[in-house]
Specification:
There is one protein chain. This protein has helices spanning 5-12, 72-84, 87-90, 132-143, 157-162, 204-213, 228-235, 248-260, 265-268, 279-285, 307-323, 342-355, and strands spanning 2-3, 17-19, 23-25, 35-39, 45-51, 57-64, 96-101, 110-115, 118-123, 147-152, 168-169, 177-182, 185-190, 218-222, 240-245, 272-276, 290-295, 325-335, 360-366, 383-389. With 390 residues, the chain is an alpha/beta fold. It has 3 domains: 2-64, Archaeosine Trna-guanine Transglycosylase, Chain: A, domain 4, CATH 2.30.130.10; 72-181, Transcription Regulator spoIIAA (2-Layer Sandwich); 200-389, Rossmann fold (3-Layer(aba) Sandwich), CATH 3.40.50. The strands form 5 sheets. A 7-stranded mixed β-sheet has the order 16-15-14-17-18-20-19, with helices on both faces.
């Protein structure tokens, strides 16, 4: 295929996606998962990637600049490089982390997460369906899981059946709920039916930061889900932790995670409260005060057209959270909405702080953890900011 000039420049700059409207011509129709070669206007090699006729992202680039043989050895090299980048995690008492983060690590439309002895692989693109046997063997060789679970995004389920694939354990079946460790704290992951691959691994570093800030503080965890921030806060010496979530299922998961850690006296002795309520309404109506508030909602803008509403919601949430802080209190605000850029989210939280009329200082900002690398703008979704108030 040949690309339009602007797409050529984008690929040369390292972007891994070629959209359908960027293709000048191609010699024939392609099938999902086929290797496709892109040439520039002078018929010189530009890139090779996986062809996806079912997606606006028509070519998912694997290698640009120089030709390469995309074979099992190529995939092995990419998987081994990803494993090496995560070696430092093992020494932290952590056996729950992302092993491969999709396009940013040479496996477009695929993520693989480890939970103790179980590897959960989730596919988001049809390009992997005809290649599953090869990629499964590579993942087993490099990461050596005892159990391997295949998960499929909803739009792939019908196409997967045509390839004889379905969600579930591949080979030996393990437990549907797996207990793993994050910085020594135990959590459960529902590897077959849980959100994403069973747990929100991407906030691990921010949870550790909150743990380090919590000593002697009363902590409110808004959109608490399975209690990750609360457990780290309790181990960090919080005076109390309050989980706020609208989902009874989420609060039950948090309760189970606390029970998993009853052998830790710091966690077991921390007073806890669970509040099942709509977070927006509860924050508006509550008269309580806290020393540390964590606001980590689910994605509020899954599509570009939802961005304006998400910005309003983030302003409302964080303004009210600031209003619940005692003097000396801390706000940790996070966003996982890819359509809200980092600079825009940080700015709106700072503006909410300014409008509060309170004196404040910025302590830190963060984005992607080391096991969730983002090598191009569209892959960047996670960001957080911490402010302290007088």
């Amino acid at each position: 295929m040949q690309l339009l000039p602007r797409a050529e420049a984008t690929v040369r700059a390292g972007h891994p996606w070629v959209f359908d409207g960027s293709i000048r011509s191609q010699n024939r129709d392609g099938e999902a998962g086929e290797l496709a070669v892109a040439y520039d206007r002078r018929d010189r090699f530009l890139a090779i990637g996986l062809f996806d006729p079912d997606s606006p992202i028509r070519l998912r680039v694997l290698q640009a600049g120089r030709p390469a043989a995309i074979d099992r050895d190529w995939w092995l090299a990419r998987a081994r490089a990803a494993q090496v980048r995560r070696e430092s995690l093992i020494a932290t008492g952590t056996d729950g982390y992302r092993c491969i983060n999709g396009d940013s690590e040479g496996f477009p439309g695929l993520v693989a997460d480890r939970y103790a002895d179980t590897l959960v692989v989730k596919l988001y693109s049809t390009v992997w369906l005809p290649r599953w046997g090869e990629v499964e063997s590579v993942l087993r060789e490099v990461f050596a899981p005892r159990f391997l679970v295949l998960r499929l995004s909803r739009n792939l389920e019908q196409a997967a059946r045509a390839h004889g694939l379905a969600e579930g354990f591949r080979g030996a079946a393990g437990g549907t709920v797996v207990v793993f460790r994050e910085d020594g704290i135990r959590f459960e992951s529902a590897v077959l039916r849980g959100q994403k691959t069973g747990f929100f691994l991407d906030q691990r570093e921010n949870r550790a930061r909150v743990g380090g800030m919590s000593c002697g503080r009363e902590v409110l965890n808004v959109f608490s889900f399975s209690g990750g921030f609360s457990l780290h806060a309790a181990r960090g010496g919080a005076n109390s932790v309050t989980d706020l979530d609208i989902s009874a299922h989420a609060l039950e998961a948090a309760e189970r995670n606390f029970r998993l850690n009853e052998d830790d006296p710091r966690i077991a002795s921390t007073p806890r409260e669970q509040v099942q309520a709509d977070a927006f309404r509860w924050l508006e109506e509550s008269q309580r005060r806290f020393d540390l508030v964590v606001v980590d909602p689910p994605s509020l803008a899954k599509r570009e057209k939802e961005r304006a509403g998400a910005l309003r919601a983030y302003r409302r949430l964080n303004a009210r959270a600031i209003g619940l802080l005692r003097p000396g209190g801390m706000l940790v605000a996070a966003s996982c909405s890819a359509h809200v850029p980092k600079h825009e989210f940080h700015r709106l939280v700072r503006e909410a702080a300014q409008r509060s009329g309170r004196r404040f200082e910025e302590h830190w900002t963060s984005d992607h953890a080391a096991d969730h690398p983002a090598s191009f703008p569209e892959a960047e979704y996670l960001k957080a900011i911490c402010l302290g108030f007088g």
